[in-house]
């Protein structure tokens, strides 16, 4: 069986992949089911729906841009990022229209329909697996390039963000409807869900499962370990989601305190995961440079500089100060080419045509930098 | 680079380093009729990286994949354990039939199996012909053919043939039902193409009073009921239906609206 990395696409759009088509079919299904709900909310309170749409679209855009720029070495595909967002916004929300009330009925039947714990148990049971499924679907498509736990965490954030935007749009609009179409409740809902609870909501929960999926697909540990981490990440996301939705600490009526106290643990948890995942990516980067890249392409000092965005910025700024704007620009270009070289080694391994091409581009970039510096 | 011939002559462990293995720093521990590839313990290379590196080296040496190198060991009279490759690498250039099945089955579980399991766990859940209390505290008796689209404290929707009947939660009534309806009509008129009829009074079988009006645009019909009960609670119900199916579901909708009883939040039945 042949494996040829050159046959992969640059994004999740891969017409040869059956997973892509299954995802497409689910997107149509999700759109059909979420459409009446959105239209109904819009017809009931056009003004509230308009304000809600503007607020949550802006929230989604700002949040997505922040996440999109959090790459360590290489920026991920914008198209795949959009696909992850839409999985949450359309597919999870659309299937949720059917699955969430059904799950609530099941949980209500088990623990009692008058229990105030129904949302805390039912919502994680249906929403977390569906959001995780988005990252799994992307991981099955090579072009989406989920190669590390950090990749999974990143796409998990976006799937969760997509779902949060749709859910919160409807939630805020309904808050407006319940108050006779007023805009005030829409804004209040936005502040509570987006601003106060924004750091520990759906994106954070799905970041956990996303990292688990990333590890499952990129690790070479035992199957038991990979399954344990995959399952553990789902259970952790469900636990934190359930804790957040639970009636705990709500007796005194202080929503702000309750939200922060219940949400902070998951935020810290994801922050720690994020740091570990970044450390792992840096280790992979260093190994690739040390083992496969001659020091004329990436020197040990350059390797250390490339490890952080700050280091790269400082190095380019130092060149610019010493040799002018053009030299600074050339230094940045050299850094980009060096990172692309390391990425091509991780993707295709040393000796491939891609690596040879990337090596030549590094040499050309270095030559260009030396020429600019010499001309000063 | 050709693989060296491997011959086992007696039952003892022989440690050899094959040239192809030396390229990626992996030792081969050889026993009669079996060969194990043992990654070096001292390696600082992350495992993901190492696995990819091995695949690449094998390819450079003219061998396509782990299966081929296993075959080479087998030809030499031995069996081999193929190098571990992450799933992400193994999926390259695959159509991912397994992935499609996994994703499809999990989605189908939530779309089909979970709703089908509801009657098993909760006999009081939504069923046509049986009174159903929404999460927003409104009781109705669903007509046959209508399914529950969503039910939470924000709103409940019943769906059929592209139409949705949405119930907002029972809330304390502010102002008269007519005044509330007037606001809704103004909202509809702000949208292009809507023609809205007169506000009419409406009375449910339970005796709760309210108002009702109908709006049309070229493709859609919107009906709105605002019903108040004696306890000062108000229910708002909105039907949104394609023009093509609206007439055919009038009887169903009327029967469901007549069955409406406002219970209030926190009331089960």
How many strand elements of chain A? 0
> For the residues shown, what is the average pLDDT of chain B?
71
The largest β sheet of chain B comes out as: 9 strands, antiparallel
Known CATH architecture of the largest domain in chain B: 3-Layer(aba) Sandwich
Tally of helical runs of chain B: 8
Our count of helices of chain A gives 13
Report how far the terminal alpha carbons of chain B are from each other: 79 Å
Regarding quaternary structure, what we see is heterodimer
CATH class designation of the largest domain in chain B: Alpha Beta
CATH superfamily of the largest domain in chain B: Mog1/PsbP, alpha/beta/alpha sandwich
**What sort of overall outline of chain A do the alpha carbons produce when their principal axes are compared?**
elongated
What proportion strand of chain B? 25-35%
Sum up the overall morphology of chain B in one term: elongated
Please tell me how large the radius of gyration of chain B is.
Answer: 35 Å
């Amino acid at each position: 069986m042949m494996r040829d990395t050159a046959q992969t696409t640059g994004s999740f759009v891969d017409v040869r992949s059956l997973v892509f088509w299954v995802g497409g079919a689910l997107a149509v299904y999700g759109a059909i089911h979420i459409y009446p709900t959105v239209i109904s909310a819009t017809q009931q309170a056009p003004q509230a729906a308009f304000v809600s749409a503007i607020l949550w679209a802006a929230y989604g855009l700002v949040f997505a841009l922040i996440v999109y720029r959090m790459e360590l070495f290489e920026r991920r595909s914008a198209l795949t990022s959009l696909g992850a967002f839409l999985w949450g916004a359309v597919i999870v929300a659309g299937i949720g229209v059917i699955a969430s009330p059904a799950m609530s009925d099941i949980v209500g039947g088990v623990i009692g329909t008058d229990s105030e714990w129904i949302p805390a148990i039912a919502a994680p049971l249906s929403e977390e697996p569906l959001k995780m499924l988005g990252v799994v679907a992307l991981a099955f498509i090579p072009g989406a390039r989920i190669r590390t736990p950090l990749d999974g965490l990143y796409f998990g954030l976006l799937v969760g963000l997509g779902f949060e935007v749709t859910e919160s749009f409807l939630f805020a609009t309904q808050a407006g409807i319940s108050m006779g179409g007023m805009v005030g409740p829409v804004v209040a809902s936005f502040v509570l869900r987006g601003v106060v609870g924004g750091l520990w909501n759906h994106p954070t929960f799905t970041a956990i499962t996303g990292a688990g999926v990333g590890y499952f697909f990129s690790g070479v540990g035992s199957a038991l370990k990979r399954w344990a981490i995959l399952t553990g990440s789902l259970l952790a996301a469900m636990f934190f989601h359930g804790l957040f939705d639970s009636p705990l600490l709500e007796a005194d009526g202080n929503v702000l305190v309750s939200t922060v106290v219940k949400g902070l643990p998951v935020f810290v948890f994801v922050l720690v995961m994020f740091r570990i995942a970044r450390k792992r990516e840096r280790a992979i980067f260093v190994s690739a440079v040390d083992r496969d890249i001659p020091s004329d392409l990436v020197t040990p000092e350059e390797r250390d500089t490339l490890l952080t965005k700050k280091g790269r910025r400082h190095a380019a700024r130092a060149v610019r100060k010493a040799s002018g704007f053009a030299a600074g620009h050339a230094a940045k270009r050299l850094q980009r080419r060096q990172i692309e070289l390391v990425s091509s080694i991780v993707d295709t391994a040393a000796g491939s045509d891609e690596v040879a091409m990337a090596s030549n581009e590094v040499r050309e970039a270095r030559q260009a930098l030396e020429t600019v510096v010499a001309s000063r | 680079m050709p693989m060296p011939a491997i011959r086992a002559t007696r039952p003892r462990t022989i440690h050899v380093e094959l040239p192809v293995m030396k390229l990626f720093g992996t030792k081969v521990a050889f026993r009669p009729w079996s060969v194990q590839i043992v990654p070096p313990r001292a390696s600082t290379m992350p495992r993901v990286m190492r696995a990819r590196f091995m695949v690449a080296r094998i390819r450079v040496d003219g061998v396509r994949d782990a299966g081929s190198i296993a075959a080479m060991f087998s030809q030499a009279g031995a069996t081999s354990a193929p190098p571990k490759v992450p799933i992400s690498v193994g999926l390259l250039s695959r159509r991912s039939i397994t992935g499609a099945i996994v994703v499809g089955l999990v989605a189908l579980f939530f779309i089909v199996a979970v709703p089908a399991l509801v009657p098993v766990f909760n006999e009081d859940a939504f069923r046509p012909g049986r009174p159903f209390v929404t999460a927003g505290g409104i009781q109705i008796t669903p007509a046959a053919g209508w399914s529950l689209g969503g039910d939470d404290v924000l709103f409940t929707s019943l769906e059929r043939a592209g139409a949705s009947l949405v119930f907002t939660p029972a809330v304390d009534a502010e102002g008269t039902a007519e005044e509330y309806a007037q606001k809704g009509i103004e909202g509809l008129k702000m949208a292009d193409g809507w023609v809205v009829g007169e506000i009419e009074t409406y009375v449910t079988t339970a005796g709760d009073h309210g108002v009702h009006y109908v709006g049309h645009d070229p493709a859609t019909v919107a009906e709105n009921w605002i019903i108040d009960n004696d306890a000062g609670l108000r229910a708002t119900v909105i039907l949104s239906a394609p023009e093509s199916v609206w007439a055919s579901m009038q009887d169903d909708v009327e029967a469901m609206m007549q069955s409406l009883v406002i219970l209030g939040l926190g009331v089960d039945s």
